[in-house]
Design brief:
This protein is an alpha+beta fold and 102 residues long. It has one domain (2-97): Alpha-Beta Plaits (2-Layer Sandwich). It has helices at 17-33, 65-74, and strands at residues 2-10, 38-45, 54-62, 93-97. The chain has a 4-stranded antiparallel beta sheet. The relative contact order is 0.33.
Length: 102
């Protein structure tokens, strides 16, 4: 089974870090892990200056990445994956990654 990473960079809306972290840890991360193919997640906070305060790395295991991405893409903003207004959506960035080489 192939392994991939989803790396998400994000910021809280101004003055909403507590709300953002409560939502991310208690709602969003579990919702993402409910997408078939997502197997683990870890969150980080930036220790220096940068455009993003938070980063999450999700591990995906699948032989059909296209199906996982399609299912993942259908969920944000639905009851399966509500999005909090504590997220600064305008600065959020998400990328999918695969290992280099064998």
């Amino acid at each position: 089974m192939a392994k991939y990473k989803l790396v998400a960079f994000s910021n809280a809306a101004e003055g909403r870090d507590d709300d953002f972290n409560t939502w991310y840890d208690g709602q969003h991360m579990p919702d993402v892990l409910n997408v078939p193919g997502f197997v683990s997640a870890e969150r980080f906070t930036c220790v220096g200056e940068g455009p993003h305060r938070y980063m999450a790395i999700y591990e995906i295991e699948t032989d059909d990445l296209g199906a996982v991405l399609a299912e993942f893409g259908k969920r944000p903003g639905t009851e399966l994956m509500p999005i909090s207004d504590a997220l600064d959506f305008g600065t959020a960035q998400v990328g999918f990654w695969q290992p280099v080489g064998g």
